[in-house]
Predict the 3D structure of the following.
Amino acid sequence: PKLILRRFDGCRTGDVVEIELDTLVKKLSWTSLITDDGVLKDGTHFFVDEGQVLPPPLRYWQHRHLIEPGPGGGSIIVDNLEYRTGFRALDVLLYPAMWAQFAWRKPIYRRWFE
C-alpha cells in the first residue's frame, strides 16, 4: 500500500510517528510511539517504535531500528521486528509480506547512504 507520512516528531523517546496506509480500498491509520532510543556500548545507535494505533489485522507492533558500526567504518542497518495479530497462523502467513516489506528497503538504503 501507498504510505503517507502524516506526522514525524523524530526518533527520540516520546516522539510520535503517524502514517496513513492507502490500500486503494480503504485508508488506514498507523500511529507509533518511540519508546526508547540511545547508543549501546558497542556504538550501535537505536530507537524503538511501538504501535499505538495499528491497521487490521495487527494487534501488536514493536520495531527496533539498529544502526551498528560496520567493518571499515561503515554502518549496518538492522530492522528487528516483532508483530502479532492475535492468531498465530495469521502471524506465520504474514511473515513473507513483512519480510518483503523490509527487504525492498535494502537497495534504497544503499543508494541513499553511499
